[in-house]
Amino acid sequence: MERPVIALNTNTPQQSLTIHRPPSGFSLRGTIRVPGDKSISHRALMLGAIAEGETRIQGLLLGEDPRSTAACFRALGADITELNSELVQVQGIGLGNLQEPLDVLQAGNSGTTLRLMLGLLAAHPGRFFTVTGDASLRRRPMSRVVQPLQQMGAQIWGRHNASLAPLAIQGQVLQPIHYHSPIASAQVKSCILLAGLMATGETTVTEPVLSRDHSERMLQAFGAKLAIDHATHSVTVTGPARLTGQTVIVPGDISSAAFWLVAAAIVPNSELSIENVGVNPTRTGILESLERMGADIMRENERVVAGEPVADLRVRSSTLQAAEFGGELIPRMIDEIPILAVAAAFAQGTTVIRDAQELRVKESDRLAVMASQLQRLGARLAELPDGLEITGGVPLKGAEVDSHTDHRIAMSLAIAALNAQGTTTIQQAEAAAISYPDFVTTLQQVCH
Ligand code: S3P
User: Fold this and answer.
1) Pocket of ligand 1, candidates 142, 212, 435: which has the most ligand atoms within 8 Å of its Cβ, to mutate?
2) Pocket of ligand 1 (CB under 6 A)
């Protein structure tokens, strides 16, 4: 059997990825690891910076997003060693001690960096901060965190009533609030909890549906007093808190593993083992969804590592069936919907994804971009206001597509291209490095 040709054109800053699928067929095989969880990596750097004493981070994601977080917190006074996946040491400066930086804080492409950091900055009385991001981040809504922070007494300025970066923050003494968030967003929840660490009294966030709970787990491990009410999806932090540096072991990112789960499911005769993947139940919607479609996925060696559930995942190819997705499942697989759409394009029948309007305000409008780019490959699908309707089983044909600088779109299209006839070129494929710098190398390794 011939292997697919997978070539990254690195001659220009905007890299294109070409994938040529051999007519004779091929398979995906091997045992791989995925890079560290992005959400946990950001939180480990941030909590390490504001804790007292040293934090040791093993398995940090070396993608561009955590690099943005590290650069911001260095500018705010924390001592963070050079980033590597073995061990990063953070010398914490203690809660309330972030320094006024000499320049604008640059969050790059990372919504998590900007939104979580905002909660901390707003609570530093007498200090002034400015924050911004790249073109994508400057288009994304910040009012979802600015408004609750303003209710706590924060002073924040920016375009469109302080809803778009760049933002300027004059730190204040914040008051605790009970915030009923209209959206299930871990970034909103975490921003308010971080601000609440420094407000005297009880700050509570109630969300409509539970979002990822990495902040809650890590804050407790660092010594914050948290009360969690599972029945109402509420978390309360009591301030002022005191955090102590910890050892954080970052598991592999299930959002990165998702590309391999779908790839091995749809490419015939494939079998992949993905070791050391975080399987926190607030993140495993993609496993449940693929299983509902008939994917053959086994969880092996389940264990708990530094407060987070971890497992090895074994996936074998199978015939997928269409299914309908919506409701509480969506926040538990919010970043995996682009790759789920690829799985649906190869499933029998019509898959409907609903309640996913949040995808419109991610790194790109992921509903519009996935619809237009999969259509270029010949997929039959319709864009819904809050989701996608995809009729699978129509053979895809190689074409030129574009990531729209969105890392998860770039990788989802690469997996679709593996199963499309002929040659596909993905423009702006360098975006993958935001969360998965070695994606193309691993893709080359597993194709046989
Ligand atoms: C994240 C939360 C999610 C997710 C993002 C990372 C986090 O965003 O899409 O990739 O680390 O808290 P929202 O909170 O906006 O849903």
Assistant:
1) 212
2) 39, 112, 185-187, 190, 211-212, 334-335, 358
DSSP E strands: which ranges in 368-418?
380-384, 387-391, 400-402
User: Do 266 and 416 meet the contact criterion of CB atoms below 8 Å apart?
Assistant: no
- The number of the ligand 1 atom at minimal distance from the alpha carbon of 358 is 16
Task: From the CA of 38, give the closest atom in ligand 1.
Answer: 11
Q: Are residues 206 and 314 in the same domain?
A: no
Catalytic residue check, 335: yes
Q: What is residue 11's three-state secondary structure?
A: coil
DSSP structure string for 133-196: --TTGGGS--HHHHHHHHHTT-EEEEHHHHTEEEEEEE--PPPP-EEE-SS--HHHHHHHHHHH
Percent above pLDDT 90 for the chain: 97
DSSP H helical ranges for 169-274: 186-196, 214-221, 254-266
Atom of ligand 1 nearest to the CA of 362: 9
Does residue 169 sit in the same domain as residue 295? no
pLDDT in tens, 209-256: 999 999 999 999 999 999 999 999 999 999 999 999 999 999 999 999
395 Cα–ligand 1 center, Å: 33
Q: How far is the CA of 5 from the centre of ligand 1 (A)?
A: 34
Write the residue with the smallest CA distance to atom 15 of ligand 1: 185
What's the 35 CA to ligand 1 centre distance in angstroms?
A: 17
Catalytic residue among 37, 65, 312, 335: 335
d(CA 440, CA 8): 8
Using the CB atoms, write b or e for 83-106: b if 16+ within 10 Å. Answer: bebeebebbbbebeebeebeeebb
- Does the reported pTM lie above 0.85? yes
- List the structure tokens of 414: 């690469």
Residues 287 and 426 in one domain: yes
Residue nearest to atom 10 of ligand 1 (CA): 335
Q: How many CB atoms lie within 10 A of CB 75?
A: 18
Residues 6+ apart with CB under 8 A from 180: 206
Print the domain residue range for 320.
5-36+251-446
**pLDDT (tens digit, 9 = 90+) per residue, 360-370?**
999 999 999 99
Which CATH number do you get for residue 30? 3.65.10.10
Residue 254 CA to ligand 1 centre (angstroms): 13
Q: Which atom of ligand 1 is nearest to the CA of 334?
A: 9
**Quick one: the chain helix, strand, coil %, rounded to 5?**
35, 30, 35
One domain for residues 10 and 105: no
